[in-house]
């Protein structure tokens, strides 16, 4: 429909060597697709031998009996002038033709029905194939439309993907924050531990030094005095305990 | 307003009897033309009587009748001797 018009709008082709452009090509709109269907019945034939057109040709001048009179006259002329010679072949032909005509009259319709059935089957398979092809194409069209409808939802898909990416970024950011925090805390803990350790060591050292000095400063004299004092105290205490009991 | 159809393009049924000679002389008698004429005639007969849905007997029987007539004509010189009378 639109293609031929577009093609006609092009400039006419130059007459190149092989193609003779004297004959116009494709001037009509006629095309052979779809193929026109076969005619139902063939040309009419009367008595199986003479086409109907001959009778119609003679009808205006001689009426209905014209062709038959012509046939009779022709036959008599052929016989009388012996252009058709009656010999043994004539007898054979008469017998054979009688048998053939009888057989056709008797078995004709059955053979015709059988042939028609064969044709029907062929046509039915072809039509089935055509219908199946059309059906397949219809379903293909449906599928295609569905796919097009599905493609419209791509905005949702991209939103979901964007959400995913944002979540990943967020997670990564938080992980790194945590790492920074823990690293800093580790360093600060280290410093605190160092300070604590240092103070503890200083304390221990000082306590030790003080103890050492005190122990050193306890002279033997002081030791004896303190032991005697302890004994006196213990005796007093034991007296008091005896009194209590 | 007479339609100016060339003599060589007219169909046989439209040719007047007096023009028959010139019409016949104008036909294409090259081998290609003869083959084209045979092809045209065959396809006309075929598409009218044989290439139909419900073909009848006439399509085949006319061909056989034509063959019978043609073979009779070819063997007439031999059949002539079977004639019953000499003078007709």
Automatic annotation (TrEMBL), chain A:
<keyword id="KW-0496">Mitochondrion</keyword>
<keyword id="KW-0406">Ion transport</keyword>
<dbReference type="InterPro" id="IPR008688">
    <property type="entry name" value="ATP_synth_Bsub_B/MI25"/>
</dbReference>
<keyword id="KW-0472">Membrane</keyword>
<comment type="function">
    <text>Subunit b, of the mitochondrial membrane ATP synthase complex (F(1)F(0) ATP synthase or Complex V) that produces ATP from ADP in the presence of a proton gradient across the membrane which is generated by electron transport complexes of the respiratory chain. ATP synthase complex consist of a soluble F(1) head domain - the catalytic core - and a membrane F(1) domain - the membrane proton channel. These two domains are linked by a central stalk rotating inside the F(1) region and a stationary peripheral stalk.</text>
</comment>
<dbReference type="GO" id="GO:0045259">
    <property type="term" value="C:proton-transporting ATP synthase complex"/>
</dbReference>
<dbReference type="Pfam" id="PF05405">
    <property type="entry name" value="Mt_ATP-synt_B"/>
</dbReference>
<comment type="subunit">
    <text>F-type ATPases have 2 components, CF(1) - the catalytic core - and CF(0) - the membrane proton channel. CF(1) and CF(0) have multiple subunits.</text>
</comment>
<keyword id="KW-0999">Mitochondrion inner membrane</keyword>
<keyword id="KW-0138">CF(0)</keyword>
<keyword id="KW-0375">Hydrogen ion transport</keyword>
<dbReference type="InterPro" id="IPR013837">
    <property type="entry name" value="ATP_synth_F0_suB"/>
</dbReference>
<protein>
    <recommendedName>
        <fullName>ATP synthase subunit b</fullName>
    </recommendedName>
</protein>
<dbReference type="GO" id="GO:0005743">
    <property type="term" value="C:mitochondrial inner membrane"/>
</dbReference>
<keyword id="KW-0813">Transport</keyword>
<dbReference type="GO" id="GO:0046933">
    <property type="term" value="F:proton-transporting ATP synthase activity, rotational mechanism"/>
</dbReference>
<comment type="similarity">
    <text>Belongs to the eukaryotic ATPase B chain family.</text>
</comment>
UniProtKB/TrEMBL annotation, chain B:
<keyword id="KW-0812">Transmembrane</keyword>
<dbReference type="GO" id="GO:0042776">
    <property type="term" value="P:proton motive force-driven mitochondrial ATP synthesis"/>
</dbReference>
<dbReference type="InterPro" id="IPR019344">
    <property type="entry name" value="F1F0-ATPsyn_F_prd"/>
</dbReference>
<keyword id="KW-0138">CF(0)</keyword>
<keyword id="KW-0496">Mitochondrion</keyword>
<keyword id="KW-0375">Hydrogen ion transport</keyword>
<keyword id="KW-0999">Mitochondrion inner membrane</keyword>
<protein>
    <recommendedName>
        <fullName>ATP synthase F(0) complex subunit f, mitochondrial</fullName>
    </recommendedName>
</protein>
<comment type="similarity">
    <text>Belongs to the ATPase F chain family.</text>
</comment>
<comment type="function">
    <text>Subunit f, of the mitochondrial membrane ATP synthase complex (F(1)F(0) ATP synthase or Complex V) that produces ATP from ADP in the presence of a proton gradient across the membrane which is generated by electron transport complexes of the respiratory chain. ATP synthase complex consist of a soluble F(1) head domain - the catalytic core - and a membrane F(1) domain - the membrane proton channel. These two domains are linked by a central stalk rotating inside the F(1) region and a stationary peripheral stalk.</text>
</comment>
<dbReference type="Pfam" id="PF10206">
    <property type="entry name" value="WRW"/>
</dbReference>
<keyword id="KW-0066">ATP synthesis</keyword>
<feature type="transmembrane region" description="Helical">
    <location>
        <begin position="56"/>
        <end position="76"/>
    </location>
</feature>
<comment type="subunit">
    <text>Component of the ATP synthase complex composed at least of ATP5F1A/subunit alpha, ATP5F1B/subunit beta, ATP5MC1/subunit c (homooctomer), MT-ATP6/subunit a, MT-ATP8/subunit 8, ATP5ME/subunit e, ATP5MF/subunit f, ATP5MG/subunit g, ATP5MK/subunit k, ATP5MJ/subunit j, ATP5F1C/subunit gamma, ATP5F1D/subunit delta, ATP5F1E/subunit epsilon, ATP5PF/subunit F6, ATP5PB/subunit b, ATP5PD/subunit d, ATP5PO/subunit OSCP.</text>
</comment>
<keyword id="KW-1133">Transmembrane helix</keyword>
<keyword id="KW-0813">Transport</keyword>
<dbReference type="GO" id="GO:0045259">
    <property type="term" value="C:proton-transporting ATP synthase complex"/>
</dbReference>
<keyword id="KW-0007">Acetylation</keyword>
<keyword id="KW-0597">Phosphoprotein</keyword>
<keyword id="KW-0472">Membrane</keyword>
<dbReference type="GO" id="GO:0046933">
    <property type="term" value="F:proton-transporting ATP synthase activity, rotational mechanism"/>
</dbReference>
<dbReference type="GO" id="GO:0005743">
    <property type="term" value="C:mitochondrial inner membrane"/>
</dbReference>
């Amino acid at each position: 429909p639109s293609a031929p018009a577009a093609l006609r709008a092009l400039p006419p082709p130059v007459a190149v060597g092989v193609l003779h452009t004297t004959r116009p090509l494709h001037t009509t709109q006629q095309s052979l697709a779809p193929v026109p269907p076969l005619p139902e019945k063939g040309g009419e034939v009367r008595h199986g031998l003479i086409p109907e057109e001959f009778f119609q040709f003679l009808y205006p001048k001689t009426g209905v009996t014209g062709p038959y009179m012509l046939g009779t006259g022709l036959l008599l002329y052929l016989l009388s002038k012996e252009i058709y010679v009656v010999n043994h072949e004539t007898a054979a032909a008469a017998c054979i033709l009688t048998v053939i005509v009888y057989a056709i009259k008797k078995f004709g319709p059955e053979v015709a029905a059988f042939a028609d059935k064969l044709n029907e089957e062929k046509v039915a398979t072809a039509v089935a194939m055509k219908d199946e092809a059309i059906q397949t194409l219809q379903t293909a069209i449906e599928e295609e439309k569905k796919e097009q409808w599905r493609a419209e939802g791509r905005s949702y898909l991209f939103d979901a993907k964007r959400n995913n990416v944002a979540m990943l970024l967020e997670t990564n950011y938080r992980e790194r924050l945590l790492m920074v925090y823990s690293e800093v805390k580790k360093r600060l803990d280290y410093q605190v531990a160092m300070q604590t350790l240092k103070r503890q060591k200083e304390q221990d050292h000082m306590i030790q030094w003080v103890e050492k000095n005190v122990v050193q400063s306890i002279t033997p004299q002081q030791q004896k005095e303190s032991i005697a004092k302890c004994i006196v105290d213990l005796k007093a205490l034991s007296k008091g305990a005896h009194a209590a009991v | 307003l007479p339609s100016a159809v060339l003599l060589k393009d007219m169909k046989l049924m439209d040719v007047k009897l007096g023009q028959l000679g010139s019409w016949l002389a104008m036909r294409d008698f090259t081998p290609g033309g003869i083959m084209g004429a045979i092809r045209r005639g065959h396809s006309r007969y075929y598409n009218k009587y044989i290439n139909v849905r419900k073909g009848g007997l006439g399509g085949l029987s006319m061909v056989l009748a034509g063959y019978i007539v043609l073979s009779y004509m070819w063997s007439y010189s031999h059949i002539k001797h079977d004639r019953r009378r000499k003078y007709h």
